[in-house]
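chain below, 321 aa
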Amino acid sequence: MTLQAIRNAWNDFFFTKQPVTGIAIFRICFGLVLILNALFLLAGFSDWFGSHAIVQYSTALTFTGTGRINLFSILGASDSSAYLIYGTHLIAIVGLTLGLWTRSSAVVAFITLVSLHHRDPLILNSGDTAMRVILFLLMFSRAGDAFSLDRWRALKAGTTTGPPAFQMPWAQRLMQIQICIIYFSTACFKLQGEAWTNGTAVYYTTRLWDFERFPVPFLNDSLVAIRLMTWASLAIECALCSCVWVKEWRNTVLILGVLLHLSIEYSMNIPIFQWVMMSLLVAMVAPQDMDRWVAGLQGRWHALPAPLEQPVPVSRRRKAA
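prediction:
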């Protein structure tokens, strides 16, 4: 392979224009997860972020340090500041989900989310880290070019016509690489442990009673089933950082990934994490595949709201009625 071939492959991967359908649908899925996460934060909000929170702001700074994006350092660590940041975050993520001032909403959502996370880092898990990273990359995408109020407003104003224009997918590609890094690092970490290689890890994880949601005794009482589930989950995570790049295998691997996260969501109570990861898998779908599926749905069932893509004249709506 020549350097020119590598350069061409690089440019094709990051900069060849692709349909924006996929990143727009990902924006909606990811935005719904952000809203769900924000609603979860309301339970005991003052205990986590208030002026008399369990973790005081001065204590939080010993973990995060200074010089980071943190609105609390500007507004203070009062109750009113916490609710102001939270309210702004909620408005921003709703706007992001609806595609209203999409890029600005993404920027505000990122700043407010990071500020809340830096206010109390002790209540976070790796899903929260993934949300911050992906939300940062989403700011640079053209996620508001389809299925958004921004597009609907542009169609009404006549500033755009026809289907959404193809755009360079480099921001989505960076998301995909980051998602693969997550699964790669997870698989590497698990392979260092004897319990995962000998097939007994699921036995221990399903007996963490503090995390138990619904029991599955018909599986967990069988050593054969336990080993199969352990090795299968490890194989799926390895596939999600490698085989997912093979076009012929991608959709199958993504379906297996969703099933893996649904099974964990069923058996273990780890709030939001599985839904974060399942929403991220939407970004792994090839833009052409997503565009083809959506076009098929539009043509077959008319399942998507017409005003988001092509306004229907009033005369036609009356005639159809």
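The two ends are 61 Å apart (CA to CA). Residues 178-290 form one domain.
thats it, cya
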